[in-house]
Amino acid sequence: MSGGPSLDAIRPCLEGAVPAAIATCDAAGTPNVTLVSQVHYVDPSHVALSFQFFNKTRENILANPQATVFLLHPQTSARYRLALLYRRTETEGPLFESMKAKLAGIASHTGMSGVFRLLGADVYQVLDIEHVVGEEVPPAQEAPCHIAGLSRLSQRLAGCTELASLFEQCLDGLAGFFAMPQAMILLLDPTGQKLYTVASHGYAQSGVGSEFPVGRGIIGVAAQFRTPIRIAHMASEYAYSRAIHEHLAETGVGDRLETEIAFPGLAEPHSQLSVPILAAGRLLGVLHVEHAEPHRFGYDEEDCLMGLASLLGASILALQQAADIPLEEGEGAPAPTPLLGVPLAVRYYPANSSVFLGEDYLIKGVAGAIFWRLLSLHVEEQRSEFSNRELRVDPALKLPELDDNLEARLILLQRRLAERSRDIILEKSGRGRLRLLLKRPVLLQEVAAR
Amino acid sequence: MVQNFYLFQFGPDLMGSTTLSDEQVRFIESGVSISAASRDVRRVPSVSKVVACRVAADRRQVTILVDAAQAGQLLQDVAGSGSMAVVFCLPSSHRTLQLKGHDARQVPLADGDAELAERHRTAFADDLLPLGYALPFALATHGFQAERLRALSFTLSDLFEQTPGPNAGMRLEPEA
C-alpha cells in the first residue's frame, strides 16, 4: 500500500455505523454504485463485504475485480477512499460466521430480519487507502485506552495462585478497567458438545453450573469456530434462550444440557461479544461480555478481549497443573465434631449423578458425582480434608486421568453450595486441597433409578 | 444501511427516453445522501460524495455538484469516459435510487449552486439528526468549499429502484 493511513487506523469506519458507497464497473465500461452496510475488517490488508444477493455489484466484480469504496468515519466524518481488488468468496468458517452474526444484528436493527441472509463473505485485498480532504469534526469522546487496562489486569491475573481467584479477578477487572460489568466465563465440557458457566459477574443469579451448546448462539459459534463473534444490536437469531431451546429440540435426552440452572445472560443484550479461550492449541472455553446498550463493543474491545482470553487460557493451564499436589501423610483425617440437629436428607441419582439437598436440586454430572463421593467419605471415614489428586485417581469416580476440568468442576460445586445451602460448605484449604464443613448431620440416600 | 436489494429497472419508454417522475425528482433533490461513480480507461472505478443535485424541467437532464478537492479522479474519469452512476439514499427510510448516464460531462455552475449545496447540506442533517447523529457530524459529511464546486451533468439513461423490501434479492432488470 502507499503512504496513506493503515487499515487498522480507520477501523471505526468499518463498524457499519455509516453506510459505505461501493463503485464497480462491468466489462462494457458501465460503472455501478451502491451502498453497503458492512465493510468488515479481516486483517491489515483485507476487508470483506457481505454477499447477500446476486446483484450488479456481484456481477461486476466477477467480471472485473476492481472496486472503489468511499468510507466515512462515524464520529469525525473523515473521508477515506479504498482501492480494492476482489480475491475470493468464503461461504463457511470463522470469517463467514463473524459476518453472519454482525449482519443479523444490523438486520434486526433496521427491521430487515429475514431479508438479510449472508450467502458469502467477499474478500477484497486493500491496495490503497486515500484520506480524502474535507470537513472533519473532533470525536465526541476519546477512545478509552484499553492497553493500559489490559496491562493492569494482566498483572492481577499473574498474581493469582488458584483458578477461583483467577476467574474472579478477570471478571472484576472487566467491570473495573473496561466498563464491562456483565461478563461470564464458560469452560468446554470434555465431550466437546457443551460449555458450562464457571463464573459470572453482574447478574442477580450467577448462573454458575448452567450450560450452553457448542455451535449455537453467539457463545456456541465463537467456541465452534474459535473466533470472536460480536453483535452491535439485539438479534433474536442469537438469543441465548433460542440457542438452548433449539439444541434441546434436536438432541436426545442422553445429551441434555443442564436446564435446572438458568443461564445468567441479560434478557435483552444489545451488545454482545464472545471470544474463545485458547491455550496450547486447544479450546478451553469462552469469555463472554454483553451490554444493554447497542454499539458498546468495537474492534478495539474485540482485540482487547482476545488478548485477555489468551492470558486467561495460559493461566488456567498453569493453575490446573499447580493444583495437583498430593496430601501429606496423616493429613486429611481430622475427626469432625459430632453434629446435632435434624439430619439433612441428601439424595443422589447415579443415573445422571444429580444431587438434591432435601427437595432442592443442587447439581448433576461430574460435579454431582464428586460431591457425593466427598460426602460419602466424610460420613464413612469421618474425613473433612481432601486433595484434588486423590479425587482424580479415585476408582469410585472414574475421572479421566488428564481431566483439566476437575479444578473448574470443584469451583462450580463450591459456588453452587454457597448459593444453595447454609448447611454444607466446601472451601479451599490450600493449593489442591479441599475442606468439607457440615453444620448439621446428613442422611445420604442413593436412589438407584429415577 | 441499504445493501444491494432488488433492482427494478425503468428502461427507455416508447420514445426512447427515460424520464424521472415528479416524485422521483422531489426525492433526489431532497436531503438524500448522494454518491457518484465513474471509471477510467482500464475500467477502474472512481467514487466520490456529491453535495447537491438538480434536475432540468425535462426530468431527464440531471446535474450533480461535487467538491473538486474531493473528487479529482471522478472529474478526470467523467471527462475521459462520459460514464456515470449516481446513487441517492434517504437514511431515515433506506429508500434508494440509482441513476446512470453515458454522456456525462462537466458543465459551468449555475447561479445559486452554492446556495443549493448549502440547502442540501441542511436538509440532509435534518433527516439524519432523528437517527441519533450529532449536528456537527451531519453537517461535516456534506462540507464543501464554494470556490471548489464543480457541476457534472448527464442525460438519464437507466434508473434503478434499489429500496429494500419483501422482494429483496429479486432482480427484475429486463434483458436489454
Automatic annotation (TrEMBL), chain A:
One of its GO terms (molecular function) is kinase activity. SMART domains: GAF. The keyword Flavoprotein does not apply. SUPFAM superfamilies: FMN-binding split barrel, GAF domain-like. Keywords: Kinase, Transferase. InterPro entries: GAF, GAF-like_dom_sf, Pyridox_Oxase_N, Split_barrel_FMN-bd. Gene3D superfamilies: 3.30.450.40, Electron Transport, Fmn-binding Protein, Chain A. It holds the Pfam family GAF_2. Residues 162-326 form the GAF domain. PANTHER family: 5'-PHOSPHATE OXIDASE PUTATIVE DOMAIN-CONTAINING PROTEIN-RELATED (PTHR40660:SF1). This is Histidine kinase.
